[in-house]
Amino acid sequence: MNRRAVMPVLGASPRASLLPPEIRVRAHLKTLSRLMVAAVAAIAVLAVAATGITTVLASAAAGELDRSRAQTAALLAEQATYSEASDLETEVAVVTAAQAFAASTEVAWSHYLDLAGVTLPASMRIEDVTASAAAPWQVSAAPTGPLRGLAVATFQLTVSSSSEGDITGWARSLSALPGFADSSIDGLSFIADVPEGENNYSSTITLNLDASARTGRFAPEIAAVEPVPVVATAPTTNSSSTGSSTADAGE
After folding, report:
1. pLDDT mean over 155-173
2. Are the C-beta atoms of 211 and 152 separated by less than 8 Å?
3. Labelling 221: which of 13, 115, 168, 190 has CA 20 to 30 A away?
4. Which of 158, 161, 165, 91 shows the shortest CA–CA distance to 124?
């Protein structure tokens, strides 16, 4: 190996350390000790600061959690209030639907009997009445003949009269009743031996009513839809046919 030459330093003050090496080592160790103590103190300060910051953050998080829990409890209480209202609304809807279903086939029997009685001739009298209609869960019976309408309710009227013509005439007049579907005279008999003042003709008349005879109680209201106006257009005529018609009229 090449040794580097030691150049003398010109003009420098001559110095010599007369202290033993142990003193220099001791001084160096004291410096290291002070640095270590400062480092430990800094670490302790940082630990205390970190602990304080963590405590503050944990306290803030706990407060936020308590506020969230209180807000959740308030929302649940409010939801319970609305739940009662919602349950009541559901019950009302169920009852309304049940009422509408139960009354869907209801017919104002007494009203129709009064209307039929208004047109009854003085010589006639209604002796017996039987009314029948399909239940809400039943399907209306199909017409039993080509002259029969789709009936949802039926009257069986037993009448008596002193004149056969009054019975047939009154049966025809039933067609003017609202909700009339069809009617028929199912039987007509003459009773020869009757007490004085009693009618000697007896007949059974069937009166069928269509769906418009139902009362419609509890039926949901349907918003009326305005009809679309229809613009009437004048019919076009062929000029040739017009000319021929005019010629025919001239002739």
Report:
1. 89
2. yes
3. 115
4. 161
